[in-house]
User: Fold this.
Amino acid sequence: MKKLISVLMTLCLAMLLLTGCGTSPAKTDAAKDTVPPDIKAIKDRGVLKVGVKVDVPKFGFKDPASGKVDGFEIDLTRALAKKILGDETKIDVQGVTAKTRGPLLDNGEVDLVIATFTITEERKNSYNFSDPYFTDGVGLLVKKNAGISSLKDLDGKKIGVAQSATSKKALQEAADKLGIKLSFLEFGTYPEIKTALDAGRIDCFSVDAAILFGYLDDSTVILADRFSPQQYGVASKKSNTALAKQVNDTISEMKANGELDKLIQKWGLK
Assistant:
C-alpha cells in the first residue's frame, strides 16, 4: 500500500509539473494581449501603411522611370517600420496630396501620414501629431523676368497654392500687414501649380520653401521672404494613441542619437 501511495504521489507531482509547463502558452497569449490594439493591427498585418508625398523632390518623390518613391520622409517611414515591425522594408506607401491625406487617415486606409503635414492647433483637434521632425517657412517662387523681389511686389497678383495647405493663410496674414491685396488659385498638386506658373496663369507659386527647391529651374527664382514657420509632424488617427506614442518616442530617439540630422543632411535639406 505504501508503495502504491508513493507511486500515486509521484504521478501527481509529474502531472503538476506538466500542468505548470502547459501554462507557458497562456502566458505567451497574455503577453500578446498586452500589445495595444492599434499597434497589434499593424503587427498582425505585417506592414506599416503610410501616406506620403510623391511629387515633392527630396521629401517624397516617385521616379517616373522606375516607379520607386524615395526621399527624406520615406526614410523616416522605414525607420518607423523597423521600430514597430523589426523590418524597415515592411512598408506600404500611398501617394497623398494636401487635400487627401486627412481623409485617408480618417477612413483607416493608412496608419500614418508623413507628407510635409504642418502641425497646427486646428489640425491637432482632428489628429495626433508627433513632435516636429522638420521646420520650414512658406516661400515664394516666381519667374526671374517678372520683376518681383518681395511679397509687396505681388500686390494685385495671382498666387498658386495647394488645396487645404497652410500657405494661403500665411500669405494672407502677411499681405494684410503690408496693406496689399492678393488673389489665390488653388490646385490639387504641386506640378499643376508649376505648370500654371510657366504658362503665365499665376504670378507666383507658394508653398514651403524646401518643397519649392524641388521645382526651381533656370527660369525661376525663390525669393528671400519666409512666412509663418511650418513644423512638420507625423499624423495618426486621434484614437490610435499607442501608435502616436510609439512614433513620437522613435522620433525623439532619432533626434537624440543624431539619426534624424543625418537623414536631413543626406537629402540636402539644411
Residues 16-28 have pLDDT under 50 and may be disordered. Residues 2-21 form the longest helix (20 residues).
